[in-house]
Amino acid sequence: MDFLFSYIALAEVYVLLGLSTNLLVGIAGIFSVSQAAVFGVGAYIVAQCLMTETMGFVPAMLVASLACIALNVLVTLPSLRVSGDYFVVTSFGIQLLATAVFINWTQGTGGANGLPGIPPPDLFGFALESNLHLVMLTTVAVALGCLAFRLIMRAPFGRLLRAIREDELAVAAAGKGVLQAKVSAAALAGAFAGSAGGLYATFLSFIDPVSFDLDASILLLTMVVVGGARTLAGSIIGPFLLLALPQVLTFIDIPTTIAASARQLIYGVLLIAFMLFRPQGLAGEKL
Amino acid sequence: MLALQLLVNGLVTGSALGLVAISFSLIYSTTKIFHVAHAGVYTMAGYVAWSLASRGAPDIVTLAVTVAASMAMGAFIQHQLYARLERRRATPLVVLIASLGALAVMQNVIAAIYSPNILQFPVPWGSKMVVLGGVRLTWTQILTVIASLAAYGATIWFFHRTILGKQIRAVASNPFLAEITRLYPQRVYVIVVAIGSAIVALPGILVPLDLGLQPYSGVTPLLTATIAMIAGGIGSITGSFVIAIGIAVLQNLSLLVIPGEWSIGITFFIFVIFMLFRPTGLFAAAR
């Protein structure tokens, strides 16, 4: 039962991340491999706030979300002003830079050893320690995230984003601010990824740089690609399926030394296969 | 004295990086595809060369087979992946995701076969030292500079003096018009990616001769090379080569003040400066 709970809670954290990646990649059409970096920034901020006891869980989550919004705005504003391919370079750069910071800034992040002993989240003075409570917390968070995603999709802003993905020039000709809309989408994606990071840190009570590297970003992209772009169902199916994959792999007898590469290899194959044969994913719209 | 040594080291790394930048720039300016999987071809070249060298193949055979293998891999990716996606009118985002998938596949196949640990080349002459005016250089480093300058010169000659080179430039500047004159853009794209992959095989062998091989080490040089390409002006071979050397020299000189693990930060800082003040690059062709 405990195993099931932790699987669900972890998958729900990744659903939040999937929503974030879907907003950026699926809806706004901006390719990004720095989602894991933003996720990591959120996780480390919440971990530090709780470990130094400077503030409670809820304000720490707010701080993390705001920091990730600021990070994404700072990153997208100069590069998207020029062109989409400049943002590809920027997002690779941010991802590698963030990994360097997570590994080398030992004071703030614990370096390669990570940060152990992150206290459990507390809501209004009530500490959530058992796995059941944590699952309830992540479920509430995911429900809120899904609601927000749905509202955004149906709002004029969501239509604007989809229009930009279809034809940027036409939207600009209609007098809409293309750059502004894209940066706002990135900011929203930052808020989602940052709060997912906070939940991840408090749920696992241990974080290390491996969870937030380039491979993690590729995994997030694979989740959205497999699930499907621009739909709620897609953002939910992708994480649940792909997080079950390592468990399935343990049934097949492969040496532990190559288990990690085998997993990443499968993500790569999935990315290529879905792009070639089913760009809309399992339950999404055409990318 | 240390500064002089670092300057020379920068020139050596820079000339190898320059070749990565040239090859990426050729592919990008012609096909308009952000060929992330190029980092995989670069890594693969090193491992092919290592396998041959450690089985005692003569150096010239190793070089020839490695270059041929890289060309074949590059042409395969263009012909079987990018051309297929192009026929389905895939968006640049879809092509980019597929390319990232190809990179993940190549890196992890290599990691599964050769283990993710560092491998050293079994070449005894490579690490022999020469002292020139107080600067210590290995034979590998001297060879790197000579080979890079020769490859740079050959590329310039090829694109300005041969028919095929001119045809490629014609397709790069306007594929639609080129098609009218009985050039087949898709065929030219395969040739260009093959040539780019052949060029990138050189640094792919020479850099690991000095520093050793690792399956995931291709992304950072590729990122630095794309930054050099953008800062040098997209489409300018000389621009990307010169700026790549400049970036490597700056990175090495920065070691005097900042520890080496932050060098990615220096590279990225240069990119942000260019993006803000001169997004078309230094050597951009007049439009």
Which strand-content bin applies to the residues of chain A?
A: under 5%
- From N to C, what is the helix and strand string of chain B? HHHHEEHHHHHHH
For the residues shown, what is the average pLDDT of chain A?
90
- Radius of gyration of chain A, in Å, reads 18 Å
In the CATH hierarchy, what is the architecture of chain B at level 2? Orthogonal Bundle
Note the gap between the termini of chain B.
Answer: 44 Å
Biggest sheet, spatial arrangement of strands of chain A: 1-4
Structure description:
- The complex is a heterodimer of chains A (287) and B (287).
- Chain A is mainly alpha-helical.
- Chain A has one domain (2-211).
- Chain A has twelve helices and four strands.
- In chain A, α1 (2-27) crosses α10 (214-227), α1 packs across α11 and α10 packs across α12 (259-277).
- Chain A is globular, with a radius of gyration of 18 Å.
- Chain B is mainly α and 287 residues long.
- Chain B has a single domain, classed as ABC transporter involved in vitamin B12 uptake, BtuC (Orthogonal Bundle), CATH 1.10.3470.
- Chain B is built from eleven helices and two strands; from the N terminus they run ααααββααααααα.
- In chain B, β1 (129-132) and β2 (135-138) form a beta hairpin.
- In chain B, α1 (2-31) runs antiparallel to α8 (185-211) and α3 (59-87) crosses α8 (185-211).
- Chain B is globular.
- Chain B starts with a helix and ends in a 10-residue tail after the last helix.
- The model of chain B has no long low-confidence stretch (mean pLDDT 92).
- Chains A and B meet through α3, α4, α10 and α12 of A and α3, α4, α9 and α11 of B.
